[in-house]
Amino acid sequence: MLFPILIIAHLLGASVWVGGHVVLLATVLPLALRENSAARVIDFEEGYDRLGLAALAIQVITGLWLAKLTIGDWRPSLGPPPTAVYLVGVKLVLLTTIVVLAGRAYHRVLPRIAEQGLKPFAVHAWVVSVLSGLMLVVGGLIRVGWSV
Fold first, then answer.
1. d(CA 56, CA 66)
2. Which member of 13, 26, 77, 82 has the greatest number of CB atoms within 10 A?
3. Parts of the chain with a pLDDT under 70
4. How far is CA 140 from CA 123, 133, 144, in A?
């Protein structure tokens, strides 16, 4: 019973995280760039910040738990690892990169958006969004049993 609950929580977290980035890239950022308005981005981030970071935290916790349930023992065994181990490894690299970039956005990019302009933030937002989308794809591959 635990596994389906973890999957649902993980998917809900992913929906909020990726969905928020889609809204940012599709609606907020283009308008902010057109108007050269950092205030639009700041307003969005202030509203999305707690929800987005909570969703990311849920994904980290449930993702690590699901990885443990999916691949079992973390210690390497003899022979080539199964595909799931490779894919979980890819997700962990993507996750680490996203968490580092999210921290950088929160502590460095957003506080300086008024003085540095919107372009650095836009690049940052696109990179995090693409990496987040890749995490969705890799997670889906793990669930459907895709093999390399």
1. 15
2. 13
3. 73-81, 147-148
4. 26, 11, 6
